[in-house]
Design brief:
single chain; 132 residues; alpha+beta; two-stranded antiparallel sheet; 5 helices; 18% strand; globular; OLC1v1034995C2; PAR1
Length: 132
């Protein structure tokens, strides 16, 4: 099965599960949709890596302490991830991306800026915190 079909099925399953259970908990999300998701509590989910007992790098989804105002229970769409030029598999977030013209152009593009408030809010707050 192609990875795009898998992600589509996964996203549909998560929407169904969310509708059934009514709650998004970061630690229960698959790592493929962790980044740019917001738990029912309003806290951002973040992707972390760790080494298992055999020394292999594994990934897990965790709840951060960052609360997103006016947004909860949100799993970012693949369209927004693509339009904004971000990568769900990146561990952590860095302001270094602002120095890359292609990233900034995508983030400020109408497709991202007007349709993806979660990603825009995340990077706006990062920029504000860094003093940009």
């Amino acid at each position: 099965m192609s990875s795009m079909k898998f992600l589509c099925i996964l996203a549909c399953s998560l929407i169904f599960i969310q509708g059934t259970l009514g709650e998004i908990i970061c630690e229960e999300l698959p790592t493929q949709v962790c980044s740019f998701s917001i738990a029912s509590s309003g806290k951002r989910c973040l992707l972390e890596n760790y080494q298992d007992k055999d020394g292999k790098v594994e990934y897990q989804c965790r709840t951060s302490e960052v609360v997103v105002e006016r947004m909860a229970e949100h799993i970012e769409t693949d369209e927004c991830v693509s339009a904004c030029g971000v990568d769900r598999n990146t561990v952590g977030i860095s302001s270094d991306a602002f120095f890359e013209p292609l990233f900034t152009a995508k983030l400020c593009s109408p497709a991202c800026y007007q349709n993806c408030p979660n990603i825009v809010d995340l990077y706006f707050n990062l920029a504000a915190g860094e003093g940009y």
